């Protein structure tokens, strides 16, 4: 499994340990009623579509026509449910969004998503198990009228099967390669809420601008996202600039190192870097990676990776493994405001170490 799939799968779907942990657990069942205080909740009004139906959405796997404003929405892949929720629609079903390197997490959704269900006074959705790929049976049982998969890794066969359940909207061009703005754009269009999607993007851009307004440490510095296995430092991986995690570093004001740019130009998600070629990332000022503070210590103890300036300087941000924060750094419509200030603070601290 590629590092991208390894991390995206963990972040968006499952990892090998989580696969084992999830097997046999089945998809969770949707709640029967509002999860928030009923007395405090008015029935959430389904937003009125601003687009005229039918709408046609072109995507990498074809053209999908949605005949009328969908009332029952399902999402698969990563973060698509957050687009609907941010626009006032609570999906009836969603892929598992939690991930855990230790395999001790069950199916579920992250805090920012659950908060949105509460705010909409909506019952929590059925959470589709992803251990064995797309859970067609559970998705069909949810009786969706549209399936959002703007950020996903659907295959053509999976798309064909899902399209028999409900109109399905896949990723714009490349599987698992949809930055958050494009995910909002294609998912909101499928809901007939394209104009509202544009407003949502503008709002998030404003939040990012405000969060970084007083930060000058990012200017002129490069940053990239890496996958590192501390127990095997013979190879690490760097993600391309088009990957959602790396792209978000650019949104915050960083430049990109040459290797990340080169990987993107080749249309790839990532590339491996052998330890003996560590100097190829000497132009990376700030490294972001999964793990804890021990990861930096391990790299500083390594005779090869310790020669990289970012490692020498301690300009490394470890975002955790398998927790909500490490999940949030793959940005979505709802995870961005949830993690933004904390993430900027960590990056600011790391950038202050650059020499």
UniProtKB/TrEMBL annotation:
Gene3D superfamilies: Nitrogenase molybdenum iron protein domain
SUPFAM superfamilies membership: Helical backbone' metal receptor
Location(s), subcellular: Cell envelope
Pfam family, any one: Peripla_BP_2
Keyword flag Transport: yes
Main location: other
Keyword tRNA-binding included in the entry's annotation: no
Classification via CDD domains: FhuD (cd01146)
UniProt domain Fe/B12 periplasmic-binding: residue ranges: 72-351
Keywords noted in UniProt: Signal, Transport
Signal peptide start-end: 1-30
Gene Ontology cellular-component terms listed: outer membrane-bounded periplasmic space
GO BP terms in the entry: iron coordination entity transport
Family affiliation: Belongs to the bacterial solute-binding protein 8 family.
Protein name (record): Periplasmic binding protein
Taxonomic source organism: Microbacterium faecale
The organism's taxonomic lineage, starting at the top: Bacteria, Bacillati, Actinomycetota, Actinomycetes, Micrococcales
């Amino acid at each position: 499994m590629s590092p991208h799939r390894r991390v995206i799968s963990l972040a968006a779907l499952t990892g090998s340990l989580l696969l084992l942990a999830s097997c046999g657990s089945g998809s969770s069942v949707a709640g029967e009623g509002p999860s928030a205080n009923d007395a405090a909740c008015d029935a959430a009004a389904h937003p009125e579509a601003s687009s005229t139906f039918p709408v046609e959405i072109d995507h990498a796997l074809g053209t999908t026509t949605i005949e009328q404003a969908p009332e029952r929405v399902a999402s698969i892949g990563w973060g698509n449910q957050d687009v609907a929720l941010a626009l006032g629609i609570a999906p009836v079903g969603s892929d598992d969004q939690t991930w855990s390197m230790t395999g001790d997490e069950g199916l579920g959704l992250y805090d920012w998503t659950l908060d949105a269900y509460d705010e909409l006074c909506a019952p929590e959705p059925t959470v589709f198990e992803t251990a064995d790929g797309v859970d067609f049976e559970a998705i069909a049982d949810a009786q969706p009228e549209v399936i959002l998969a703007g950020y996903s890794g659907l295959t053509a066969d999976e798309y064909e099967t899902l399209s028999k359940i409900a109109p399905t909207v896949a990723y714009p061009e490349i599987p698992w390669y949809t930055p958050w703005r494009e995910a909002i754009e294609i998912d909101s269009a499928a809901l007939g809420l394209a104009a509202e999607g544009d407003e949502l993007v503008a709002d998030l851009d404003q939040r990012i601008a405000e969060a970084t307004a007083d930060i000058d440490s990012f200017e002129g510095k490069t940053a990239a996202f890496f996958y590192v296995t501390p127990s095997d430092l013979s190879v690490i991986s760097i993600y391309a600039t088009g990957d959602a995690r790396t792209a978000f570093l650019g949104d915050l004001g960083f430049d990109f190192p040459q290797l990340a740019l080169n990987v993107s130009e080749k249309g790839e998600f990532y590339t491996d870097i052998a330890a003996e070629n560590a100097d190829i990332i000497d132009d990376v000022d700030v490294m972001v990676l999964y793990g804890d503070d021990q990861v930096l210590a391990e790299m500083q103890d390594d005779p090869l990776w310790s020669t990289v300036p970012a490692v020498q300087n301690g300009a490394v941000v470890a975002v955790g493994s398998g927790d909500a924060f490490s999940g949030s750094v793959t940005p979505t419509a709802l995870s961005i405001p949830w993690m933004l200030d904390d993430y900027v603070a960590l990056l600011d601290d790391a950038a202050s170490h650059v020499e």
